[in-house]
Amino acid sequence: MTTPPALLIAGIGTRDERRADAFRDFVRELGTRNPGLPVAGGFTGQSPLPLGDAVAGLADEGVTRFAVVPLTLIPSERAEQDLTAALAGECELRPDTSFVRARPLGPHPRLLAILERRLNEALGDGPRRAPSDRAETTVLLVGPGSVSPESNAEVHRAARLLWEGRGFGGVETAFVSMAAPDVASGLDRCARLGARRIVVLPYFLFAGTAADRAQQQAEGWALAYPEIEVVTADVPGPTEELMELVMERYREAAGDEADHAAGAMDQEVAVEAARDETDGSVAVPAQKGRQSDSPTHVR
Question: Which residues touch 167 (CB under 8 Å, ≥6 apart)?
């Protein structure tokens, strides 16, 4: 059987220790859930968890082929350039190493489902989940902000997709820094449009400094406008849907090899289960096929 490429999860540069810790836990959990598949991850640029260390760790175990999944909600030219440069540097260090890259994560229906769940949690149990009450709730989707108009446009795109068919009065956008409107200006706009209840929804995968700043800015604005209810939702976090989406992107990049390996791992699990239930004689079940995800290879 051909050995599939390892899964390399790539974050885009951060010096935020909490974000790096959450990222590290996420990578570890993915590895635990996928025994037999080498999994590692790190960040480009200056970071407490460098991408190069992740590559080196797997290379020391004999891995030469990697499928890279960018763990980012917002694709950007800068992020692409940083990742391209990081992988080119690894190829120079290890000429026998090859990388194939997957598409960025968002916005994807699984991510939108997570965001909707975070909105429901922020609104709480009871009548606020009723359609009539949702119609009186405005969502402010807060992205990190960028000097790149294309990156900021992705937040607006996610806001439109989140608004469609979910019954909220509106979904507006704001940014923590480097782009307008900022959180306070975004809340001003919601109020001018008649909002009496606003949910501030961070568009970041993990908790950290950026999410804290969004919450602090929202709380400061709310103190000045006590007649308007403002609540802040949690970040998506390391949910089941996010893990499934990363594996979906991995299978797209790795192609049929990932499907074959997954089938083999299923068979190994079944064999171990059979061993546990017998006195040592093992009946190997027929291997089941898996549906292809119409893989798209990106180099």
Answer: 131, 134, 135
pLDDT at 48 over 90: no
What predicted TM-score, i.e. pTM, was given to this entire model?
0.82
Q: Are strands 6-11 and 65-70 parallel, antiparallel or unpaired?
A: parallel
Q: Is 255 helix (H, G, I), strand (E, B) or coil?
A: coil
| Cα 119 from Cα 66, distance rounded (Å) | 36
Q: Position of tokens 């993990």?
A: 206
Pairing between β-strand 137-143 and β-strand 98-101 as defined by DSSP bridges: unpaired
Residue pair 78/276 in contact (Cβ under 8 Å)? The answer is no
Q: CA 74, CA 76: separation in Å to the nearest integer? A: 6
**Token pair in block for residue 159:** 């806001």
User: What's the burial of 293, exposed, middle or buried (CB within 10 Å: 0-12/13-18/19+)?
Assistant: middle
Mean pLDDT, the chain, integer? 84
Separation CA 71–CA 57 (nearest Å): 19
Q: How would you classify the pairing of strands 39-43 and 137-143?
A: unpaired
CB 33 within 8 A of CB 61: no
For the chain, what percentages of helix, strand and coil (3-state, to nearest 5) are there? 50, 15, 35
**In which band, very low, low, confident or very high, does the pLDDT at 129 lie, cut at 50, 70 and 90?**
low
Answer for the pair 196, 231: CB distance below 8 angstroms, yes or no.
Answer: no
